[in-house]
Predict the 3D structure of the following.
Amino acid sequence: MRDIAVVSVAQHQEKALTHTTEVELMVPIINEARGAVGLTQDDIGFTCSGSSDFLAGQAFSFVHTLDAVGAVPPISESHVEMDGAWALYEAWVKLQIGGVDTALVYSYGKSSPGSLRDVLSTQLDPYYLGPLWPDAFSMAALQARIMLESGAVSEQRLAEIAVRSLNGAAGNPLAVRSSAEATVESVLAEAPIADPLRPSDCAASADGGVAVVLAAGDRARELCERPAWIKGIDHRIDPHQPGVRDLTRAPSAEMAAAQAGASADRLDAAELAAPFTTQEHILELELGLGNGTAVNTSGGALAGHTMMAAGLMRIADAARQIHDEQADRVLGHAASGLYLQQNLVCVMEGE
Amino acid sequence: MSADPSIPPAALSGEVSLPEKLADVEPVRSVRTPIRLEYDFIPGSASSGYLNAFADRKILGQQSPVDGAVFVPPRGVDPRHGAATPDYVELPDTGHVGGFCVTRLPIPGRDDLEIPYVSAWIHLDGADIGFLGLVAGIDTSEVRMGMRVRAVWKPDDELGCTAENILYWEPTGEPDIPVTAAGTNAWHAKQAAAGEPG
């Protein structure tokens, strides 16, 4: 195995991009990520991105965004209809195979032109669930009810997770929902929007993008004072049909964490891409995060959920803590699908 | 798995076991799952500048900060380098046909468009790449690469922030540009001379 590290990250997020195309969004982000380590596209061995046509409302929408990369002369490139964390995984595999020493990974999501709650319904099977058009909040509330009634979590605990996000996000300029004053009492006083879920239980929808530069071995050491070395990365998936799953659990998250070696040593920080407090609670248990781990100091995905980028943003936030010497060993997590169906865990360390 | 694609997989070709009372019911052959998603697109910064000027009969391009190449319509970026292009340049509404095709199929929703019609890459004077337009005011058999054209605009009171402002491009009657220098040929020759990939 080659040593591969995140050497540079850049991101932007806001509530709604009302005067910016996806290309205009990504030009400064990609240039910032490359420029911070003195690279141009000519120095990048492989480029991989993640996005969704259902957000853009355009077929093959990712081809437009290559304008922000610069594809002259032609570049080695790939795209996944996934959160950018899976694009990072593909780039990591490409670097492991060898032949290239650097990779650019980016993803973006602009859900504000449409209705994300409805777009997410199109991920359901088209025979039984899809025709009912259950919206994303209602589906999550069904899970929350099962969790609360079975004793898997308490309303108090969900409120604590919401407060952790709101308070943490107060120090994160990229968060779109934050409150330094929020308390468990103030969250529990909110009227539910999809009973039993309250507004603070549901991630705040955002538009944004993120870019990450990966480098292997000595190249990483040249480019970055303190690279965030990827010590383990894995992704796993549970069945699509929610009826066959225990909705209080996420076995794929547990297995991905085990395969990535998350518990091999103390984790200073973890950044989780959970779109609901219920799912953040499940993840903490499945990933085995203990008291010594600072969870979502950025506010996490709850404080700003950019569909298709929230996971790569978490990995970027975790890696930055290594770069800035705030932490020595961190975990970045990404999820996709209904009820945390698919999970990716990336464990990174500084030297 | 069968090697012959015309033979369905065993799972689909076998008899389905149904309860007795459904034995004679006609099989369901399709399910209707209507999907309707609505999007409100915004044109973005570069296109907003272009469309606002277009409503005043002005055509704006943007200039590459790398080598000064002019792109029209502007997209806020030089796609060769991924470099932002904040600087607009105003272009004339004259140019030449860089490439064209004669279409004999109607476009759904465009009953006003008589067939055959000519769509063409219009290369404006001063622009380095072309953009799409209709060519009219000339028999379709006489349209040619390198032919000089000018814009025929809608009347002033019908102009808006839309690509429909230019009805079509008509010949100016000036001498043609040599095919070797027309359209992307000129662009690639210029790029090669500068030692740039193009």
